[in-house]
Amino acid sequence: MPVRVGWYCVYTPEEIIAAAGCEPYRLVPPDGIEGNTPLLPSTLCPLVRCLVTGLEQGAFPPLNGVIIVNSCHAMLHLYNALAHRFTEEPFVFLLDMPRRDGPAATTRLAAELRVLAAFLGTRSGRSVTTERLWATIREQGNALLAAEGPGAPGVRGMRKAGPRVALAGSLPPPGLAALVEEAGGAVVTDDLCGGRRYRSGRGAVLEEALAAERDGEDPFAVLARSHLRRSPPCPRFVTRGDGRRRELLKLVETHDLRGLIYHTLKFCDLSHYDYLWVREALREKGVPVLHLETELGTRDLGRLRTRVEAFLEMLL
């Protein structure tokens, strides 16, 4: 059986995992998991706490390893908790991700990716050669672009009528999109890191890599550069510039949005900062934004229903 490697952050290089002969598996907390682990404080990101609880309770398929990207302070706590809890298997690897793009950051990340590739090769018994990595990039890139295209939506509801809205922000609790549609809204797209932004971002990464292969570039440098240029970037990046604003306004125009529902996880500073930025950017276009905060559990949905209904009524 292949070595199964769990991951969560969309900046995780799935191409390198696959090139090492491993099976990438994205860790998303299953329904009903509560983040009640003694390894982490209750005032930490609920996503991180739910991931630790899920791994402790065996809620995921058997894993040989987990890759953590230091995308935020909470993810560093996740790495420390898992490294303390699992001393042998699954192995836990921390990938250091720069907070800006540019030549120095690209060189730094390319070196990190080579370390990751060598580490996975020792675990799987299959070295990540340049030829294998390019072959994996071609295979995954062609499959992704042929199946869905780089702009494929991640969350889309079933309703055709009602105010057209999008979901944005942090990973939403299960059932949030359904709640919006039950209240009369039509969820036509999203701006979630695990939804449309994951697919469009990864599609762009692979598309750029496929073009760079023809120029004889180093695949690790290409992956590093393209990951750092993902658009829109994660709120952790300090060089968002006008790209994020253009992406948002394009989303509004493309899908004729009447409003946006921005979800943040409790204790997530980065998403709270991003919400303020998004609200100001959309205010220029006259697009209202509803801010919802949860701890990722379905028990939060009941108290949100009234606010969602009032927001949608305002959009009529």
Question: What is the gist of this entry?
Answer:
Helices cover 47% and strands 15% of the residues.
Q: How would you describe what is shown here?
A:
This protein is of the alpha/beta class and 316 residues long. It contains eleven helices and eight strands. It starts with a strand and ends with a helix.
Order of helices and strands: EHEHEHEHHEHEHHHEHEH
Q: Within the largest sheet, what's the order of strands?
A: 2-1-3-4
Q: What is the mean predicted local confidence, pLDDT?
A: 86
CA distance, first residue to last residue: 54 Å
How much of the sequence is in beta strands?
A: 5-15%
Count of DSSP H/I helices? 11
Stretches with pLDDT under 50, minimum 5 residues: 148-154
Per DSSP E runs of 2 or more residues, the count of β-strands stands at 8
Task: Show the helix and strand layout.
Elements: E1 3-7, H1 14-19, E2 22-26, H2 46-56, E3 65-69, H3 73-85, E4 91-95, H4 103-124, H5 130-147, E5 164-169, H6 176-182, E6 186-192, H7 196-213, H8 219-228, H9 243-255, E7 259-265, H10 269-283, E8 289-294, H11 301-315
Parallel strand pairs: 1-2, 1-3, 3-4, 5-6, 5-7, 7-8
Helix pairs in contact: 2-3, 4-8, 5-7, 7-8
